[in-house]
Amino acid sequence: MADASSANDLALIKEALEGITQSLLVIDDALNILYANSGFIALFSLPPELVERGRPVEDLHRYLALRGEYGPGDPEAHVAFRQRPLHERSSYRLDRKRACGTYIEIAGSPLPSGGYVFTFTDVTERRLAQQHLEQQVANRTESLSAANLELSRLADLDPLLGIFNRRKFYQLATLARQRRASDDVPLSLLMVDVDHFKSINDRYGHSAGDMALKTVAAALVAGLRQDDVVARYGGEEFVVLLPNGRLANARAVAEKLRRRVAATTIVLGSLSLHVTVSIGLAVWSDPSQPLDSVLGDADEALYHAKQSGRDCVFVAPSAEGLFLPEDRLS
Ligand SMILES: Nc1nc2c(ncn2[C@@H]2O[C@H](COP(=O)(O)OP(=O)(O)OP(=O)(O)O)[C@@H](O)[C@H]2O)c(=O)[nH]1
């Protein structure tokens, strides 16, 4: 009676193992096959005799290795690699991409009575969904950082003129002064203001004024070097930082800019006009002097340039005495 019930139980268990979605392989403590469900045979398209009870699992590994299931390389090395954890009686779980392109998850656990049970689960759909998600996240991250980059670029620029704004100028000028704190080369600062700009707006309209500002900005940029910094200080006023500290050079650059603007034609439809600029020049020789104070010096010099009739360069009195004799003469 007891035997019949055990046989029934065994049949039931076998039936259950055939019905599960996972593929199953059981081996004994001598590493010979005890049982493989039909899911296992189907998963690897095996000849059934290869998984007959008592067959060494090593034969199965060798068969699969020779068939290319484990990828390129020495088949015996693949066999040894798979037999090792069985000898060590360690449990493991791994995901493997099969030669046919699908993914399986393999879990191996030693049984208390000796031997091993292995389950094989096709995780292709899960893996592909995960890869798809990862790709989406990567794409999203890429476009987000591109957008962030563009945002911070735009935050640095004046929207009308496309040159640096005052905030960015403060940043760059402060950085330039810090970088040169150790050498005693002064930086030069130009405050550039369009003369009688209000009259352009009044006579030709605000958009003509905008066009004039764009033309002046372009002329300034074209007249400067790569490491000079030009920014819109506000309204019709620009500020320029020249890393070269010699007054003679700075004054020459300021004069060049003044002439360049005066020679530039502003085209407004059928109309063309010219503007001039007044320039105040100050130097930033003492790294501990606040930038605002240097800007104040340049602004004061600009005021004098305006007072002197405009379309000219005026050097701030604070710059006097800071330079070599030939600088003062220029
Ligand atoms: N079109 C235009 N006009 C601007 C812009 N920003 C400031 N302005 C104008 O620039 C003019 C500046 O005028 P003022 O400060 O009197 O100076 P100015 O007419 O250039 O005279 P001086 O500086 O003394 O030679 C004002 O009319 C502002 O409205 C701008 O972005 N576009």
TrEMBL record:
Source organism phylogeny: Bacteria, Pseudomonadati, Pseudomonadota, Betaproteobacteria, Neisseriales
Keywords: Nucleotidyltransferase, Transferase
GO molecular-function terms, A-Z: diguanylate cyclase activity
Record field: catalytic activity: 2 GTP = 3',3'-c-di-GMP + 2 diphosphate
Cross-referenced PROSITE patterns: GGDEF
Transmembrane intervals: none
Coiled coil: none
GGDEF domain location: 185-318
One Pfam match: PAS_7
Name the record gives this protein: diguanylate cyclase
